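Run log, item B.
One chain of 394 residues. Sequence copied directly from the ordering sheet:
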Amino acid sequence: MVLGIWLGCSCGGYAYTFAAFGDVRGEGTNSPADPIVSVPVMQGFARAVQADGVDFVVVNGDLITGQLAWSDTNMTLTEMLGVWTNTMTEFTSRGIAVYSMRGNHETYWMTNGPAPAEAWMETVGQYLPQNGPPGEQGFTYSFTHSNALFLCVDDYGGTNSQRGKPYPKVNTVWLEQQLKTNTQKHAFVFGHEPCFQMVMSCLSAETSSRTAFWECMSTNGVRLYFCGHDHFYVRSQASISNSPPLQQVVVGGCTFDLMSWPGYYPEQGRNGVSIETEAYFGLEKSQCFYRLLSTSTNLIATGLTSQGYLLWTNVGAAEDFVVVRKTDFQVPDWTVCLRRPAPTNGLPVKITNLQPTYGYLLMEVNGAQVHGCYKTSHDMQNWELTDQFSYEVQ
């Protein structure tokens, strides 16, 4: 890896663009059909954001598989993160800087290799700004670009991380100091976990620290909080106990397994929370469900081919569905092999018209004006705008 590739964005004047996305991890092995990192998606994103003219990208965690029960690999976290850094040369070789932070998948303790915090610093953290609070240098940090302050926060305690996942918590003391001394026109904050639960447990698991984090942002001029963790795109506006509203933007839609969400916030009307969804793009709209041409109530996932990976199946219901991940965007139809017992005597099942969709958020800043658009694609060549928003800072 080339030293310093993570640092050093510069831009003349006040007009610039950057991109935000998260949850780019793969599954368990480092094979093309089952990667540690979503390499084909990242290659497509790199080409797309280069065409957009971005100066840098911010990746909101869950960069790698990490150690899970379904992870079929003996790789250490250091080795997995090495795959990540190598993949990011797709961006840096195009002159696009990469800023990243940890997600929960970078905090899992492996049966071999160094502790998560040590693995992070060996591979990624040492190349990030070292201006975070004690114990979080290389994990939590800030940088300025043109007329904005960018703050990336670690949800998991930096080098103070303990074995076993604690409730995530942001260092709001450091964050408030940064915001109160900020002289830039804009301030953007990035983290991995949302402040308000939608599907998976998040920062709201510890209500008091989450509320302190949200109010720290809302009362100090932050208008956007970018996060991931949930695998879809949601832009919402929220306030807690009548604090100034700001927008939470979940950009976890470039993963292999987009989620569906019914639009319900468990905290709505509780703990002083008032939140309203302004845009959503998830599983229902991404066309990731495809019916099997042959069905069976005892069908067992999963299967591998050189073109794709069968991830999940909903069998025994009124209709049998599969969710698949495409790794070769040049293949229009898929052949997915199923584990026995299979309804076709062990023969492959053909799945046609497959169009899984991935997305990233493109941000444009011009003086006091900020414009965002969420761009999606199923082939990494043709892109659609699925959400747009703008605001101006006085």
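Observations after the first pass:
- The longest strand covers residues 273-281.
- Residues 39-52 form the longest helix (14 residues).
Flagged for discussion on Thursday.
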